[in-house]
Amino acid sequence: MVKRVLLLNASLGALVLAGPIHAQGMAPSPEGPEQGEGQADRSSAGNSDIVVTGSRVITNGNNSPTPVTVISPEQVQAVQPGNLADTLQVLPVFSGSRGSGSNPSATGSVGAGNGSANQLNLRNLGTQETLVLMDGRRVPPTLISGIVDVDSIPEMMVSRVDVVTGGASAVYGSDAVAGVVNYILDKNLQGFKVELESGISQRGDAAKYRAGIAWGTDLLDGRGHFEFSYQYQKESGILRRSNRSWMRQAGITGAGTDPNPYVNQTDLRQAQMTSGGLIRSGIFNGMLFNPDGTLRPFVRGDSTGTASIQIGGDGAYYDSSLLAPLEFNQFFGRFDYDFSDSVHGYVQIGGNLKTNTSYADNLLLQNVTISSANPYLLPAYRAALANAGEATFTMSELMMAEDRLGTYAKTSQVNIAAGLDGNVGAFKWTLDYIHGQSILKSRQFNNVNSQHLAEALDAVTDGNGNIVCRIALTDSATQCTPLNPFGAGAPSDEALAYVQQDTHYRAETVLDDVTASVSGSPFETWAGPVNMALSGEWRKLSFVSQSDATPDDHADCTGLPYNCSASNPPLLWLNTFPISPKVSNTVWEGALEASIPLLRDIPLVDSFDLSGAIRYTSYQTSGEYWTWKVGIDWHLTDTFRIRGTRSRDIRAPTLNDLFAPTFISIVNPTDLLTNTSPRVPGVNDSNRDLKAEIGNTFTVGAVWRPSRQFNIAVDYYHIKVTNAITNVQGQTAQIQRICYESGGTSPYCALQDRPNGFADTSPANAVTAWHSRSINLSSIETEGVDVEANFQTSLAGRPFAIRFLGAYQPHIYYAQPGLITTDQGGAAFGPLGVAAAPTVRLTGLVHFEPLERVSIDVLQRWRNAMKISGVPGEVWVNNHLPAFATTNVTVTFRPEGWGNASVYANIQNLFDADPPTGGYTGNGTRAGYRDGYAVGDNPLGRYFTVGVKLSF
After folding, report:
1. What are 850-867's pLDDT values in tens digits?
2. CA-closest candidate to residue 363, choices 321, 406, 393
3. Burial class (CB in 10 A: 0-12, 13-18, 19+), 796
4. Using an 8 Å Cβ cutoff, are 8 and 590 in contact?
5. Where are the alpha helices (DSSP H) in 570-704?
6. Which has fewest Cβ within 10 Å: 81, 121, 454, 544?
7. What are the structural domains of the chain?
8. Angle at the Cα of 351 from the Cα atoms of 231 and 502, rounded to 5 degrees
9. Which of 166, 324, 164 is closest to 238 using CA atoms?
């Protein structure tokens, strides 16, 4: 296979990819490098060529056809302190990135076990369409879904971040459909760096602590260099959505039809359950339990278009965490050595020990059956029920006063790399090996054991007058502790511990990757040298997982008369993770790149270069693919140039797409056939027949740099992804309607289970399970314009700089057979975890130094108003989410006599702006359920940070 790939490459013509840089740091200084230039890399030959992200053959960012935004961590963190991942979100090209505050499921389904992983997303095309690199090499994935939690990058060592906003699969392989984020490390660090930082919100929560140290030195008479870094960060998060008064249990009610339109509302409550318990049948129907176990009438709220949701009243509401707490320890070490003047080697190890904690739902009793003789009932109520001849009654309760279900996700990721590079004559060669291992240990705390719940709810009195579980009368070995459900705070800690238990999931992802390349200039044209590069890569990704709460576990209903049916036993655990045997995928790749100068120094052509790349990829599971890219770089003058690219890219299915075992969670969306909302299994199936997605990208832009003080770049892009892998969910309203309109003949009908087919609309035919499955079915298409401008001058004789970045992305079309095409562009919420996609995203940065040792930095972010939903055909009362803006201000002081030290104070969201509230229509039956604000808006409010940075 290797010979085949090399022969294929050798027979290809001179084509290339260019991956240019068009901007410097957030606030470039007058003495900074020319626009587009990056930092020289350390090499054995003392090579001073610029490292250009996206190519092995272009050595000057000013000659690259693909737009790249270059970020200096120090400059951007001056106005947005915190994680480098969070800091990058100020760039408008990022849209839909997820992290600790992105409404994740506490079960970790968004992120395959860790829903709070920091995931970068370019243009809101999906995190899996964005390739993450470190020094141009693929960063091993953190999770089976292929997601890279970028908190694994050693932040203390990052000198800059290059963001490629164009397809790059021809150079880097799969996943670079939307673009590339390349972290460039400082490999020549000398001396110490120390950073300390602390922050807290105006409301006294979301405390944050960061501390880091880095050190580097030359060794062995300068032939060697050693450096290391360590960073610690802890964030306490915001543990409840109700901790922000502006959120007010926001959500969407209605059905999206003319007679019952969707409405964005707040102060939502469940209409059929309370925090202490609501009786749903018999003589006490409509009565709720007070904390002392007495009954009173249920005060109903105002009706909405969703029968199970009311505004106000005594109903309960969901209250999951708003910002997930996290803690991590990052470490990194690297040793470089020049074996000779032409051979250089390195070895490095880095990793991250990280925990995320998410809190989700309280213990839910949905229409459970209770014996009228339950001894926890007050005697008067037991007597009344006996007199009425009622042996049982039903009740519903959301135990808001008790501990919530949650996930403690601990990720241990270690990445090892080693390599050699050198020169042979005029040619440069490289050989690199990467080994990455990521172990996720996910503990579901307070997971509900349905068998234990049924046992604990069935309380009786034994012969000695003690309250015990009925099962204890026949099973002396049981550890069952009876649960008192009558009133908020009534259950004992022992009973809750019996019903809510910890379950565990362990997943291991391993990547081994070998790359090699040879580059140089074999000949020249009349316009200059032709640079070429030949590269090859082999990698293998594997995954294995274990779980002690699987979808195969069912309750044993023997001896349980209520809430557990022996003929149809429920899943043993409320939330499950499947066991996966070891699965893997092997990839062989080969690529050829070239940069060809064609014209020089003629009218209207200062220079004109053609570049291109072509890559052959063979997947063990998904077949063989060709990707390619061509680009032009046309300098009309030394101050104005035009650039453009056309590429074919791929995103191969992940191991999760291909091999994930059946995953089951409990859901209760509205069944539109029977107009019920049963609480039933949601079954997520994998698909081993998936093929790669195909991306086609076109970019064209212009760069004008009339002086060193000012430059502006404007770029248009169009991306279309065909054969897109889409997870189709049977419970989605559109999918349901297509099924029912077909009379049950649509393939989408296979995504739901019900007892009596599709002609019976009675409640007896309510759905018994919903299925979701990934298929190569849809297409995604988007276009837009990116703008970046930098201006630097002096104000009152002092340095002054402005940087402006803007993104206009009017449409993100999702097309799927049988469905109306949905435009997520300008929509705040969407299905399948699709995040907000404002059509206009603007960022402005101002840097001013009023005094010699004092600087002021201001960050202004703004997004335009959005639709709440982009699904066509829906009827809304007001499908509108207002615009949102925040302002950050930082004052930095460099004390005299402290050397290269700075002390800073920052205020984020200076004017304490509250995000506008909204929600996803698919959560309409659960009041306040993981909604409230659009992903990307700042839910923190005003936030204060102080810190110090030292280097010596």
Report:
1. 999 999 999 999 999 999
2. 406
3. exposed
4. yes
5. 655-659
6. 544
7. 2-241+324-359+408-444+506-559+563-951 (2.40.170.20)
8. 95
9. 324
